[in-house]
Each structure stands twice: as structure tokens, then as C-alpha cells.
Specification:
Elements: H1 7-93, E1 100-106, E2 109-114, H2 117-126, E3 148-156, E4 161-164
Antiparallel strand pairs: 1-2, 1-3, 3-4
């Protein structure tokens, strides 16, 4: 088959080819712009995701530490609650007959009250008295004559109070009481 192409047809084909090229260039520019937008958005989304991941990791570490501290605080609170209950029970039970206390006296003046002689003796060591001091029973001299003196007191329910364990026996003077 032979086809005869006229100049007019050739011009129209060239014109159509030129328009197709222009259109292809426009579409290419639009495609390049869209690709650039998408790449920029991808970088932005990736950056936000990385920052969010870092923040999540940091928050996770903070939360983990907070949970540990909360657990420690709850444990401490539980122990304190147990101690408070024990002290309340002890307080409500009151002293029992025969229970003793030790009063540590400094130059005859009460310094502190302790549950035992050992605790009183340990306290004198904090005030410069030798820790290895051998304690002896006090003689008849007044309490003010001693730098440190421990006096034991025992609970007497009849009088609802504590009384000195070693009461000095009054001396008789010339047969008179």
C-alpha cells in the first residue's frame, strides 16, 4: 500500500507531535514535582517517626524508673504501716506488772528513759563516757554525786506508775525511826 502524504497533513502531524511533546514535558514536570513532594513528605514522616520512637523510648525509661520508685515507696509505706500498727498495739496494751524502765541521770537530773540498762549505757558512750565502762551499783550518795547514773524503775499496777527498784532503806538515828 502506498500512501501519499500532503504538506498539510505533515504540518498537522508535526504540530500534533509538538503538542504531544509539550504535553509530555508538562506531565514530566508535574510528575517530578509530585515525586519531590512525596520524597519531602517521606523524609518528614520518617523524621517524625524517628523522633517519636526516641521520645517513646525515653518515656518508657522514665516510666520504668517511676514504677521502680513507686514500688520502693509502697514497700517502705507498708513497712512503716506495720511498725505503726505494732506501736499502736504496744501503746494500747499499756505497761504490764513487773515491766522495767531505766532512767539515765546526769548529775542527778533525768537525761533520758530507756527500755533497758544496755540502751542507757550505750547512750552514755555517745556523750563521751567510755563504752567499756564497768557499771557498778550506786551507793548511798545522792544521785547528783554521780556524773552518769542508771536508775531502774518497775511498773506497779496498784499505783498505776513506775517506782524505783532499789529504794534506799531509811537509816535509823539513835534508835528513832
Amino acid at each position: 500500500m502506498i500512501r501519499i502524504v500532503t504538506t498539510g497533513r505533515m504540518l498537522r502531524l508535526e504540530q500534533a507531535a509538538g503538542q504531544a511533546r509539550d504535553r509530555a514535558q508538562e506531565v514530566q514536570v508535574q510528575a517530578d514535582a509530585a515525586l519531590s513532594r512525596h520524597v519531602r513528605e517521606l523524609y518528614a514522616v520518617t523524621d517524625r517517626a524517628e523522633r517519636a520512637e526516641a521520645a517513646t523510648s525515653e518515656v518508657g525509661a522514665l516510666l520504668s524508673r517511676a514504677v521502680e520508685e513507686l514500688s520502693e515507696a509502697q514497700q517502705e509505706l507498708l513497712l512503716k504501716d506495720i511498725e505503726i500498727r505494732r506501736l499502736r498495739e504496744e501503746l494500747q496494751s499499756g505497761p504490764t506488772e513487773g515491766e522495767t524502765l531505766t532512767v539515765l541521770m546526769h548529775h542527778g537530773e533525768p537525761h533520758a528513759v530507756y527500755a533497758s540498762h544496755e540502751e542507757a549505757h550505750a547512750d552514755t558512750a555517745t556523750h563521751g563516757f567510755p563504752a567499756d565502762h564497768v557499771w557498778k551499783p550506786c551507793d548511798e550518795r545522792p544521785a547528783a554525786a554521780f556524773t552518769w547514773r542508771c536508775e531502774a524503775f518497775i511498773y506497779n499496777p496498784a499505783s498505776n506508775g513506775f517506782h524505783r527498784v532499789n529504794r534506799s532503806v531509811p537509816r535509823t538515828l539513835g534508835g528513832a525511826a
